Amino acid sequence: MDKLRLRFEKTGRAVYISHLDLMHTMQRAFSRAGYELKYSEGFNPHPQISIALPLSVGVASHCEIMDFRLKADADLKELPARLTAVMPEGIRVTDCCEQVSKVALLKYLEIEGSFEYDERSAAEMAAALTDFYAQDSIVITKKTKRGVGQSDIRPAIREIAFTPGEGEVKLHATISAQEPTLNPALLADALRQLKPEIAPDFEKFVRIENYLENMTVFR
Amino acid sequence: MDKRLERILPRVQKPARYTGGEYNQIIKDKTRVDLRLAFCFPDTYEIGMSNLGMSILYHTMNSLDFVWCERVFAPWGDMYDEMKKAGLPLYALESGDSLDKFDAIAFSIGYEMAYTTVLDMIDQAGLPLHAFERTELLPLVFAGGSACVNAEPMADFIDLFVVGEGEEMNNELLTLLRRAKLEGWSKRDFLKKAAQIGGVYVPSLYDIAYNDDGTVASITPKDGAPEKVLKRVIVDLDSAPYPTNPIVPSTEVVHDRVNLELFRGCVRGCRFCQAGYIYRPIRAKKYETLVRQGIETLKNTGHEDVTLLSLSTSDYRPLPQLCDGLLDYCESRSIGLSLPSLRADNFSMEIMEKLQKVRKSGLTFAVEGGSQRLRDAINKNVTENDLLHTCAIAFAGGWNSVKLYYMLGLPTETDEDIVGIADMAGRILHCWRENAKNKNRGVKITVSTSCFIPKPHSPFQWEGQITKEEYLRRVNLLRSSINSRNVVYNWHDADTSVVEAVLSRGDRRLGKVLEEVWRNGGRLDAWTDYFSFERWMDAMDKHGLSVSFYAERERDVNEVLPWDMIDVGVRKDHLKRERERCYTSTLSPDCRHQCSACGALRLMEGGKCDG
Fold first, then answer.
1. Contact A32/B15, CB-based, under 8 Å?
2. Phi, psi (rounded to 5 degrees) for B260
3. Which of A30, A86, A204 sits opposite B23 (nearest CB)?
4. Which of A178, A195, B133, B145 has an alpha carbon within 20 to 30 A of B41's alpha carbon?
5. How do the domains of chain A map onto residue ranges?
6. If you average pLDDT over residues B299-315, what whole number do you get?
7. Does B3-230 carry CATH code 3.40.50.280?
């Protein structure tokens, strides 16, 4: 079976599994669940799986997408439960179906974040953060493969909102997933560079949903 | 997850090794167990999770329903610093609970260079370093593993040692500890009773007296402790517990594969090899058991590699049947089968061709000595003809890389033997030219040398180690003797070997040195990233102990050895006889040809040695 797509969650302790290790973990989980992945041809065959938009270590997600091929036909309805049963803690397969859209069409990511403030008032910070992100342009210094460069992250943010919580400010945003890709970590790094007085003591993020250009859910 | 930990993890390398949560980890309800055990491996996660012994004992100890055994590994330097900074104590992976919540802390110590890490982990657990400072019964700190055949340098820090194979012994010990906890025994009462369990060595129940020259004068057991602690063994490996559902790491570890243990012990009796003596008698698993366990484990883990473990794979009698049985399952599933520890003398064309069907790995031979005379002296039963013959088959079969391991500084070694290593590499190169199918791909012959370390319970336990300077002279002699571009020479630094030689045959007085090294920052000493020779030498000087006394000194055969209270089964007379035969370069037949009545059989009543 070709062109299959898995949707899974990566939360809890599993957020520390790196992208490469996750590929390996997936491969083994398929084998444990009794599914044979299709292998590539050639001198060094490898299973044909690919995870869209690799997740940074430490970031949780409720909407990971993995495309794969199976050697034999399988009941796609029972596949999520069978895979979840053999997963490490924190990985839960929620859906399996045939691919609808190409991964290249995945345009936006809905994310949530938590900016933790140990000493400062969450209400004040939330207000300041809202002001900061209301600017038309936020130019930060970014390390790229070609060296250090300047980059405006504001155009990659479609929507962003901050609400104060207990010792933290909750962030809710829709950001560009591809072309340009915005790593959520930059939302806090920008503060460290440009307005350190409102930069959080610690931050964490979770991916909520994937969208197409027209803001319908990516399938 | 602990808030402090959550903030640290994004900053350290490979954080997945510090989180637990892997598939097949064992989670129990902590309110429903009587004993919580922290099973510590004094090295990194990647090393510890590759250790079959650790995996077996994790399961056997957890098979007791009143015990929850969890894993603890030593953090790498970056994590260590972050933990110190955040005031985060060492914690167990399964529950994330700090070690002060545990009733027992157990260490698996496989090598001497892990000693300082053990001290560090005791400290990170928030416990006083010395056994005598921990006056309460709980937490009990105990240790096992092959380094414990001479545990004397660690005697001050560990409450008791378990000597030998732990599958049964550990559970007997934990059963006693549970009783002691529930009935409120004192630590001293518990230790006295524990010393009656076969294989348990309680160092505080032995008084050591020294002679003026620093050698041991006497070892006196007290409170009913046995004069000799007899190593424990498992009699029947087929019925012994083997976990077919081991933990599958979620991040890369050193040996990321299914391990199948073919047999324990070794029939060969190489005189330098401690493992060849301390794991006797020889006990093999049936190949049917191994095929069944192998397939089951592959299914349960999803691993794509399986490897056969033993001291000498070629000596496993039903090896062809085992390979057939496993390959039947593996080939169609692209699962690789690897056979380490093959001997050069009976490496068969047939087995090699079988393996080639799946994946091809490099060829590695432990030749050890550069001349036939020296190989006879150390009882390494490999002839150059065998080796050349094997290489010829391998080169014709398409292999183009050979690794050769040697030791420098073996007893009776001469300069001629060292030049002989270079000559042998040259002849293997010639053999490649004559036999290689495709010469365009070139050939790589790698020669590696390490410095010989005399080990307790081996026939060379009385021998001196050559000095560092002498080792380097021999290295340079070999370097200048190798003159082909196709032969690469790597030599191990002698610094670690010197320290290892001191510790492996050390006595209790070295406890002070270990503590000093640790206090000065020593941990993870098996890693060149952290090992500091000066730190060790300074600590030796400070406590008035010398390298020459422990490493370089030849012992008198009548000397009381610091580890004489440990009986691994093989009799001292046998070791003496083997040592004498070294000096006349006399081979001893392997156990299959003729039983040498080494004494190990008395470890298992009613058992049969598979020698």
1. no
2. -115, 125
3. A86
4. B133
5. 4-99, 106-211
6. 93
7. yes
Residue of A nearest to B299 (CA): A32
Q: Given an 8 Å threshold on Cβ–Cβ distance, is A32 in contact with B334?
A: no
CB-based contacts of A102: which residues, under 8 Å, 6+ apart?
Answer: none
Binding-site residues on chain B for chain A (CB distance < 8 A): 1, 6-7, 9-10, 14-16, 18-23, 25, 248, 250-252, 299-304, 333-334
Q: Could you tell me the CA-to-CA distances from B67 to A46, A102, B30 in Å, in that order?
A: 41, 51, 9
Interface size, chain A vs chain B, as Cβ–Cβ contacts under 8 Å: 70
Name the helix (H) or strand (E) containing A121.
none
Domains A4-99 and A106-211 are alike in CATH topology: yes
User: Whole-number mean pLDDT of chain A?
Assistant: 95
The predicted structure's pLDDT at residue B352: 65
Beta bridge partners of B336: B305
Nearest to B9 among A45, A58, A88 (CB): A58
Candidates A26, A32, A166, partner chain B, best to mutate (most B CBs within 10 A): A32
Residues in contact with B174: Cβ distance below 8 Å, sequence separation at least 6, in sequence order: B35, B37, B61, B64, B67, B104
Q: What is the ipTM score, two decimals?
A: 0.94
User: How far does Cα B308 stand from its chain's mean position?
Assistant: 16
Average pLDDT over every residue of B47-73 = 98
- Write down the CATH number for the domain with range A106-211: 3.30.70
Are A116 and A167 spatial neighbours (Cβ–Cβ below 8 Å)? yes
> DSSP code of B599?
S
More confident of the two residues B126 and B342: B126
Q: Which of B15, B22, B302 sits opposite A32 (nearest CB)?
A: B302
Range name among A92-96, B155-159, B364-368, B429-433 with the lowest pLDDT average: B364-368
pLDDT at B355: 66
Domain borders along chain B are 3-230, 258-492+569-601
Which of these, B108, B105, B112, lies nearest to B89 by C-alpha position?
B105
Confidence grade of residue B200 (pLDDT, cut at 50, 70, 90): very high
CATH of B258-492+569-601, one of 1.10.238.10, 3.80.30.20, 1.25.10.10, 3.40.50.150: 3.80.30.20
Predicted confidence (pLDDT) per residue in A124-147, tens digit: 999 999 999 999 999 999 887 788
> By percentage, how much of chain B surpasses pLDDT 70?
97
Q: What is the CATH number of domain A4-99?
A: 3.30.70.580
Do the domains spanning B3-230 and B258-492+569-601 agree at the CATH topology level? no
